[in-house]
Structures are given as C-alpha cells and as structure tokens.
Amino acid sequence: MSEHWPAPRPDGPVERVVSLPGSKSLTNRALLLAAIADGPSVVRRPLRSRDTLLMASALGALGTGIDDVDGDWAVTPGPWDRDADVDCGLAGTVMRFVPPVAGLARGTVGFDGDPHMRQRPVGPMLAALGVLGVRIDDGGRGALPFSVAGAGSVAGGTVTIDASASSQFVSALLLAGARYDHGVDVRHVGKPVPSLPHIEMTVQMLRRHGVEVDDGDANRWAVAPGPVKAVDHDIEPDLSNAAPFLALAAATGGRVTVRDWPAATTQPGDQLREILALMGCEVDLGDDGLTVTGPTRLTGVDLDLHDVGELTPAIAALCALADSPSHLRGVAHIRGHETDRITALATELGRLGGDVTERDDGLSISPAPLHGGVFHTYADHRMAHAGVILGLAVDGVLVEDVATTAKTFPDFAGAWTLAVHGASQ
Ligand SMILES: O=C(O)C1=C[C@@H](OP(=O)(O)O)[C@@H](O)[C@H](O)C1
Ligand SMILES: C=C(OP(=O)(O)O)C(=O)O
Question: What superkingdom heads the lineage (predicted)?
Fold first, then answer.
C-alpha cells in the first residue's frame, strides 16, 4: 500500500449494497463486561480491528481467557492475579475503560500507547479513580504513561468529575462500578458532556448484564454494587463507519444500502439518517437495511454535532461538496480525539481549495472549487474517511496513510475500492 493512496473516483452514480464490520464501541464494551462477568460468554460477530484487538490483549494480559471460536470471541473470566502491561495504541476505549477494572486485579498494571495517545485527555478520570480508592501512579502528569496498583478490590462510592473532554470518562467508571464494594455514583460538573448516546449505550449494556443503573437525573449516573451477569452479545455493524459508504450515495447521486442496520440502537451513527436527509438525500430504513439515495446537489447544513462528534470528519467532507454553506458546531472536544480534528479538517480541506473557517467548537464550510492533492490523515482513521469522500468528486485526491483506517476497519481500502468500483475492479 503506497503512502499516498489515490482515492478511487467513480464514473457516475454508484449503486451498491454493502455489509460492514462490527461496532468498535459495542465490541469493546462487550469484551470488557464479559471479562468481569460471573461466568463465560460469547461476543458474536465482533469487530476485529486494531482497537478491539488491543482491548482483547489488555484483558488477556490481566488474565482473561479470550478464544476465537468460528470468528466469535469466547470470553472466560480468569483470576486477575498478575502484573501486566497494556498497550492502548490510539484507542480511547482502552485507555479509559481498562484502568477502572485494573483496580480489581491483584498486580501492577502499566499503561502506555502511541505517541499521540500521551496527549489525549485522561487526567480527570485518573483523579476520579483516586477518589474511588484506585491507586494510580501517573507521575503527576494526568496522562499516559501511568500505572494502576491493583489491590484486588475497590471501595467505590460517590465522585464528582468534569467529563466535558470525553464521555468515555463516565462510561469507564460505570462499566467497572458494579464490581466496586459500594458501586459508583458519578456526578458531572462542568461544560456539557459530549457523546451522550455513548453513555446511553453503556447504561443499556450494563442493564442487559443485570446491573442496576440509575440515570434518572441529568449529569448523574449511579451503579449499584452486585454481580455482572454473563450474557452473550451480538455485535451490530459499526454505524459510524457506515458514514463514508452512505456518503458514496450522497456524493455521487447514487444509491447505497448498508445491510443489517438495526431498527433500534444506541449507536450515534444512527443519526446519519437525519443528517443525510437534511443534506437532501432520500433515506429509507427497511428490511434490507438502510438505503440512502443521493440528490443531484447536496445542501449545506447547520448542525450541532455535540452528541455525535465522531461523525464530524465525514460530514465536513460532504459539506465541502455541498452547494450552500454549512456550520458544524458543538464539537470542541474533538480536538482531543485521534488528532485535533477541527484544525486537521480546516487544514486539509483548505489545502484542496475548500473555503473553511476554523471555530473554537467547529467549522464553517462554504462552496468552493476543489482540486486534487495530498490529504494528510494524522494517524486518524476518520480523517482518511474524509479524504476518500472528497476523492469521490475531485480528481487526484491522494490519501496519506490510508492504512490508519485499521484502527476500526479491517482492509478499509479494499472494501472502499470494491464499494466505489464494484467487483470487476
Ligand atoms: O464510548 C465510546 O465508545 C466512544 C465515545 C465517544 O468518545 P468522546 O466522548 O471522547 O467523543 C466517541 O467519540 C468514541 O469514538 C467512542
Ligand atoms: C474518537 C474516536 O475514538 P476513540 O475511541 O479512540 O476515542 C473515534 O473513533 O472517532
């Protein structure tokens, strides 16, 4: 795979039916809950990508049995009785979800990751864990690398946290909370918590495991102490990774069906239905899956993406192809994602001729003639998605390091080429 990948450009409207790999967020929650459950269980149709393999390795290093059975993952909780090292890679879910359960291990668990992972926010969560009784050594940095001195049990209780930098701080404490002696009662104080659907996903999955969660008040989540019942999970397709494939219909005036789109889901990617409709697409959720039919011209949108920040790169790319201005707001927190996505999008869209204004909490994008060139991706899978979307409508877009998509999508370049050109290419 060359470092600068020529994004495939179709000859005309694309009509395609695609099946997509499983959800990163559902797979990593399912693995973690299976590992702290009261018996063995199976995670069916899991995503196997860098982020989920890192989660499986982390839980395996602690002492969990994770076996491949016909493509599914059979998980057997084991005695967490050893020291371990956890590589977080660039996976927020590994850096945030594993430390709270590492406190339940008997041993010292070290955490580190990719160079950029040391910049991603985790300090408020480490401080909250300290209050709950987990011993952390982070050298006062509030960032990777750090270690957790697992004592075999965690007291738990009430804690106040500013989770405005990432919803994953809250999800992480809730996922572990039932196994703490007193449960957890998490109260958020600060600017609004982003990505609330992901917290709802955590709450729903905990309830499936028989865990009692009180989320009746805004900015407060309480998990009662008790066993985490072993239950099997069927992983839905990753609806956020559906964004470029649905954009293929939107940008070419074609028609794309994503199979197995769930009728009801907590995945924030489900909001693509509403967003693409606002941009002028026809959207139909039926028995075959979700079908999006693109318009002759895309309309710009004014959107608060606070709840669905991870969709911003793909939507920004579509906005750059629209024939009226767009304003994407409410996503200051995505500056702490795989890269500073606001600056990265403004820089890279601008480099290809886009008319983009960077705001503190988002981007304004106006119609402008685009041209080819290198689209830098900053080790960010969703920047690569933005690049290939632009390449649908602009000749000569070269996506840097398309392999970075392996974070959440195995062989994305292959799947994308097939989606754009069909089986004959
Ligand atoms: O809990 C999760 O699985 C996620 C929560 C969100 O994180 P932030 O709240 O940090 O945006 C999202 O962007 C990320 O891709 C996955
Ligand atoms: C923000 C993202 O990932 P992470 O789970 O690493 O935070 C993402 O996938 O867009």
Answer: Bacteria
